[in-house]
Amino acid sequence: MIAMNTVKLDARDIKILAALSREGRMSKAALAQKVNLSATPCWERLNRLEKAGVISGYGAKIELKRIASHVSVFVMAELENHRAETFQTFERAVARHDEITSCWAIGGGYDYLLQVITRDIDTYQRLIDTLLESGTGLARYFSYIVTKPVKASPMPPFDILLPTLAEKD
Q1: Contact 58, 73 (CB under 8 A)
Q2: Is the pTM of this model over 0.90?
Q3: If one looks up domain 64-145 in CATH, what number appears?
Q4: Domain ranges (residues) in the chain
């Protein structure tokens, strides 16, 4: 067993997480069959993983291009200074904008990496202008327009992260 943030996971737990990461929507009976468990023990493990916060939610993978025209932009952001209040102000501002779909605080030359999905470049620029003009602490930004998705996997590489568990069972 490996302890992860006080949650002990075994090879069967990892199989459950991997199956849900790949497919998400499946019956509990199908999940139990996939991980080679009977329904009740599988259900108990699933409940334990949910209650422990290992599974934080379920969702569908949406093919946005089938619904609407859009542009995806990755943004490297640099703040004016490195005071705690500046980071907090910026993070609160980011949380208010739904078009900022992901934001990571990073080490290195920049402070944040943001993923932005908007209708078009004009809408993206209005968002950036708002962030620059509204006292969020944003000093500089660098935009990288996605020209085509190459790989996007919501599934963590369990076999790489936890090789000792992947070998068991």
Answers
A1: no
A2: no
A3: 3.30.70.920
A4: 2-60, 64-145
Residue 44 CB burial class (10 angstroms; 0-12, 13-18, ≥19): exposed
Q: Answer for the pair 140, 132: CB distance below 8 angstroms, yes or no.
A: no
CB 124 within 8 A of CB 116: yes
> One fold for both 2-60 and 64-145?
no
Nearby residues of 38 by Cβ (< 8 Å), 6 or more positions away: 32
Q: In CATH, what number does 2-60 get?
A: 1.10.10.10
Q: Could you give phi then psi for residue 40, rounded to 5 degrees?
A: -65, -50
* Averaged pLDDT, groups of 10, the chain, 169 residues long: 61 86 85 92 93 87 88 97 97 97 95 97 97 96 96 75 55
Kindly tell me the sign of the dihedral angle through the C-alpha atoms of 99, 105, 107, 109. Answer: positive
